[in-house]
Amino acid sequence: xxxxxxxxxxxxxxxxxxxxxxxxxxxxxxxxxxxxxxxxxxxxxxxxxxxxxxxxxxxxxxxxxxxxxxxxxxxxxxxxxxxxxxxxxxxxxxxxxxxxxxxxxxxxxxxxxxxxxxxxxxxxxxxxxxxxxxxxxxxxxxxxxxxxxxxxxxxxxxxxxxxxxxxxxxxxxxxxxxxxxxxxxxxxxxxxxxxxxxxxxxxxxxxxxxxxxxxxxxxxxxxxxxxxxxxxxxxx
Length: 236
Fold this sequence. Notes:
Elements: E1 28-29, H1 32-41, E2 44-51, E3 54-65, E4 68-74, H2 78-83, E5 89-101, E6 109-119, E7 122-123, H3 127-141, H4 154-158, E8 160-166, E9 169-175, E10 193-196, H5 218-221
Antiparallel strand pairs: 1-9, 2-3, 2-5, 3-4, 4-8, 5-6, 5-10, 6-9, 7-8
């Protein structure tokens, strides 16, 4: 599943009023380029759906292929059983880049990159398509791991639900930069600035039941920086 980023630099505005950014729209974007950048840098999404009349928001891993997002989980999952009906769903990916400390508590904030995707998910039922989608999710988290570890068995595949969500209804918002203090507070004897935050990759820790002689594979030893480690980028 190759990424198709054609015409990604064009911002044609919101797909509909449902995804229109109303607060601080100058920090937002509807361009595919910006949407893909946030999704590709992230690692965990939150899938929101209404279950039995109550909102349920579940953290899970995901993967992107072209203009579709894939999520997966147990076939027994309440949220996935509801979403695959299909039901209106919102998937959010947020990357926190820093704490913004102002001279007043009221003006404290967070620098972040956030993507919100709305839609009716499609159930991926064909076994070949399901395997391809799971590969996308696996390779997003740890490139090279899909071809290294054992593939899912038929039983495991049947116990897994995979959903595909179009990226047609989505928006991106980025907040960055120093505090925006009130002019009256600029003379206060209070430190103001940003505390940058980054996700970092640490040394792999072997499983305690690992057999002797099994070495750390190259794709894990020299893998890329953790998702979300890239700095924020100004939307324009």
